[in-house]
Amino acid sequence: MAEEVLVFGAWGSPFSRRVEMALKLKGIEYKYIEEDLTNKSPSLLKYNPVHKKIPVLVHNGKPVAESLVILEYIDETWKDHPILPKDPYERANARFWAKFIDEKCLSAIFKACWGEHYEHEKAEKEHEKAVKEVSELLQFLENELKEKRYFGGETVGLLDIAANIIGYWLGVFEEASGAELLTREKFPKLCNWANEFVCVTAIKENLPARDKLIAYLRNRFGAGNASK
Amino acid sequence: MAEDSVKLLGYWASPYSLKVKWALKLKGIQYQYVEEDLKNKSPMLLQYNPVYKKIPVLVHDDKPLAESLIILEYIDEVWKQNPLLPIDPHERAKARFWAKFADDKCVPALVAAFSKKGEEQERAVKEARENLKILESGLEGKRFFGGETIGFVDIAAGWIGCWAQMTEEIIGIKLIDAETMPLLDSWFQDFLEIPLIKECMPPQDKLLEHCKESHKKF
C-alpha cells in the first residue's frame, strides 16, 4: 500500500525541522509543504484546527500536531533507527529534558537575546539576569550530556533532535543578537555535542541557511539586547 | 513488587500528584506516599527534582522522575496491566496531544480566572470556556477519552472538572456550562463518580477551604 507522508513546516522553525530530521534519520520519504505563517493555507487550518500551527505531520490522511508528539508518533510507526531508548527510565529522562528545552530554555534564550527593552540603567542588569538564567539552564543540559557523544548515546536520539534549538539555533540567535550564551569555557561538552550534532547527515541536510536565518531574526526582532 | 521500591512525593491538595495516585491505583501498584510541605520543601524533594523543585516526584528503585505526564507514561510502560495509552500510534498521538492541550491551554486560563480581577478575569474566563469547548471536541462523542473505560487523557485532565467547580463557587462565575458543553460536563461527572477516582480525592470540604484561602491572597 502506498504510504503518504506530508510535513507542513516553515523553513526557519526548529520545530518543523525536528520532524524532518526524524524522518530523514529513519529514511522515510515525505512531501514537504512550506507554510507562509502570515497567510496560513486552508490545509494547515484543516489539519491543525486547534492550534493552527506548524509542524503538522499527515500520515495517510491522518494529522498529528505538536513536534514532540510527532517525534513519538514517528518512532512508534517506523521502527528502524529508533530515536527513543528501550528502557522506560531512559525514555522518561529523554522526554523530561525535551520538555525542559521547550518550556524553559527557548523563552529564556529569547529574553537574553531580544528581551524587553528597559531604560538604560536597568537594561544591563536585566540582561545580566537573563544571561544568568540561560546559563543555569544550559548547565543542566551540560551535566545531562555527561561523557556521551550524543544525548541519545552513540547515535542521535529524540533528545538530540529536540535539542536542535541548542545545537544550531542558539548559535544563530547569538550571532544575530550579539548575545554570548553557549560559551566553550562554561559548556565544553555542550559545544562539542553541538559540533557533532550539526555534522550528522540527517541533521545537516535540515538546517536552515545561517545567513538567511540571521537576516530574518534581525529583521523580525531587531539588533538585540547585547548589541552596542 | 515491594512497596518500598515505589515512592510518591506529593501534596494532598495538588491535582498533579492526584493524577499519579490515580494511575498507581488503577494499576494496583503499592507505593509509599510522602506528603511534602510546600512552604518548607524537604531536602529529599530538592535532591530528586533539582530542576523544578516541585511535586509530584515518583521514585522507583531509587530513580526519581518528575513532571506528571511523563510520570504517567513511565508508569504505563513499566506496569502493563490496565493500560492508559491505546495501542494504535495515531490514537496515542491524539491522547498525548489532548493531555498537553489541557495542561498548556485549559489550566492556565482557569488559574487566571481564579486569580485575576476585572477585565483580566473576564478575558481569562472567556479563554477558559473556549479552551474547555475545544477539549470537548477531543472526546469525539465518547463517554471517556479512553473510550468505554478511562485512559491517559481522563487521568491527565479529569481533575479539572472538580477544580473548575470550586473556582466557579469562589469567583461566582460559571466556567463549565452544561448547555454549551454537554459532553464535557457529563464526562467530568462520570469521571469523578468512578470509585477509584473518588477514593483518591482529597476531602472536598478541606479542599474548598484550601482554595478559598489561596484566593484571599490575590
From TrEMBL, chain A:
Enumerate the PROSITE patterns for this protein: GST_CTER (PS50405), GST_NTER (PS50404)
The EC number(s) given in the record are 2.5.1.18
Write down what this protein is called: glutathione transferase
Source organism phylogeny: Eukaryota, Viridiplantae, Streptophyta, Embryophyta, Tracheophyta
| GST N-terminal domain: residues covered | 3-82
Which keywords fit this entry according to its UniProt record? Transferase
GO MF, one term, reads: glutathione transferase activity
Signal sequence extent: none
- SUPFAM superfamilies recorded for this chain? GST C-terminal domain-like, Thioredoxin-like
Its domain of life? Eukaryota
Query: From which organism does this entry originate?
Result: Castanea mollissima (Chinese chestnut)
From TrEMBL, chain B:
> What CDD domains has UniProt attached to this entry?
GST_C_Tau, GST_N_Tau
- In what residue span(s) does the GST N-terminal domain sit? 4-83
Q: What is its EC number?
A: 2.5.1.18
The molecular function terms in GO held by this entry are:
glutathione transferase activity
Gene Ontology cellular component terms for the protein in this record: cytoplasm
What PROSITE patterns does the entry give?
GST_CTER, GST_NTER
Q: Which GO terms describe its biological process?
A: glutathione metabolic process
Where in this chain does the record put each GST C-terminal domain? 88-218
Q: What keywords tag this UniProt record? A: Coiled coil, Transferase
Q: Which family does it belong to?
A: Belongs to the GST superfamily.
Q: What is this protein called?
A: glutathione transferase
Mind giving the lineage of the organism this protein is from? Eukaryota, Viridiplantae, Streptophyta, Embryophyta, Tracheophyta
